[in-house]
Amino acid sequence: MLTDRVLRGRDPVPWPSGLMRQLDPGDPAFLAPMGLHPVLAARDRILISLPGGEGQSPAAWVDPLGWCGVGEGPSVAVWFGLEDAAWPVGRRPDESGEQAAAAGNSVRQEWSDERVGVRTICRRGDLTLTLMHWPVRLGRDVAFALFTKLELAGSRPRAARLALAIRPATLEGVSPIFHLSRDGDGLWSADGVPILALSRVGDGLLTGRWGQQDAWHRFAQPGAGDLTRLGRAELRCPAGQATAAEVWTPTLTPGESWSRLAVVAPPAGTPAALVRTSGPSLWSGASADRRGLLQAGCEILLDAHQMPFDAARLRLLQDPREADVPALLGTVALARLGFVRRAEDRLGDWLGAVRRDGRLGGASGGEAEAVLAWAAGEVVRWTGNRAWARHHLAPWKRLLDRLAGDAEDEPGGHILLGREGSSRWSAIWRTAGLLSSAAALREHAPEHTRWAIAGGRMREQLPERLGPAPWSVAEGRATDGAAAGMMAAC
Question: What distance in Å separates the CA atoms of residue 309 and residue 330, rounded to the nearest whole number?
């Protein structure tokens, strides 16, 4: 509802890709106004991260129009133009997608050659904007570099403009900003959280809030409107619609390029000098980090599809937010891809969150505890690391005692089966968790027999609960809990 009120209460402004497409009647993703604006289609995004830092490494999203943000917080967009016209990446708010294409607009997005970052290229007539987003390490923390480059075709120099805009928007619509601040070195913060750091400050500022002209409309005016002088800035908006843009006004010469570097979501307390570095040095560091990260696992070379495979490995290496089914399945995959230490550390942290009653703190879904038991058993059986099993034995036993004693299964599988879920899904995983863990702990816990009997009893009951088999029951086809669980998950 907040997004709908903002859309109805102000003149059209640029939004992230999903909402821009949903607002365009000529787009297949168009959604007619209905008082709400949930982004139901065109939810494309790319996640970039650099695992391996201290604590949980953040992941930033980059949408097809080059908007970038972390989580559900505000985002950073890029606007550009010449002396007599200005554009966001993609269509302007006052034109349709067809009109933008007729005017020479084109947007292309691709991975970089080594898949270190995401490249977004937008062309408008003689002017080309190239964006590159990639994860970087600043000290012990992970942030996200944003490199912007303008190139001009034609036969004469022209005045151009570029803006890095901090917007109260995210992939789902509005993400309120009540307080925007800028220090003297070009470090922007939104509601006290650093959001943008600049290697070189701009030529002026544009700001806006609810009830005033938006920064986009001022930028779109010839000459980018009247710029506020640089320096410290404070902007507050009780409606959560504070926005600002740092603007540069270079003169471009045909055949030459002009560029600027910024860092999105810099770590708290980042000194300005830390980001006053070159794009090539940050790129080289990120490339080296990526190679070192992949070298920690097995070397796997494919005749085809090597790049998608490496991208999948990097996605698995990103630290999950919670112990849900995708994260647990991904952790088992990591161990089998050779990232044993990372898989064990991740599972160890989750086992350490098991409470005295055997429940997993912060678990997502009724099946989370069972899948954790299965994943821990699979990793130990794969690695043979008895020391790791002994170290985590106490919480592991509490988890298994609860699984063996539960009379009913809570509905799970919501990510695949919807809000109601399925208790059968949870029963499959509870069976798999008990059997896998009992086999892994045969040498470490005398209770393994009890867990194995409980799992075996549940396995015998599964066919009756599941009904006629939806898969082939050819002779030799395994129908135990682990096989059924993996089949359902795939």
Answer: 14
